[in-house]
Design brief:
The protein is about 45% helix and about 5% strand. It is mainly α and about 120 residues long. It has a 3-stranded antiparallel β-sheet.
């Protein structure tokens, strides 16, 4: 499992992110979550437009672990109140940098679209 302190390449090297990867990073950006909670968060935030199947979710999580974007936690905050089969995930500093780089990339695209009238709002 990757360590938070392992040196990584430029976050931009992973861009553009697949939407599933981006949504998972957003889901774990502010709190640790287990797989089912990630699926629920993504569905809620996208108003049901993106519903992750278990296969898609766990395949993405596996790749994200390998890339050092997230880590699987060994400690449980409340082990007596939780199902021991659940695995919790947290964003890494590198994962946060990659998500921020993706947000910047998307912001640039939106600005460009607005400039030529393809999106509403001011530039």
């Amino acid at each position: 499992m990757p360590d938070d302190d392992i040196a990584r390449t430029d976050p931009g090297d992973l861009l553009p992110l697949p939407s599933t990867t981006f949504q998972i990073l957003v889901a774990v950006a502010d709190e640790e979550r287990h797989g089912y909670a990630i699926m629920q968060d993504v569905a809620d935030r996208t108003n049901g437009e993106l519903k992750l199947s278990p296969g898609t979710l766990y395949g993405s999580i596996r790749r994200m672990l390998e890339e050092g974007l997230i880590i699987e936690l060994n400690d449980r905050q409340r082990p007596d109140e939780d199902d021991e089969r659940r695995r919790y995930y947290r964003i890494t500093p590198f994962g946060r940098s990659v998500a921020q780089a993706e947000v910047a990339r998307l912001s640039t695209l939106l600005r460009q679209a607005k400039a030529v009238g393809l999106a509403r709002g001011s530039v």
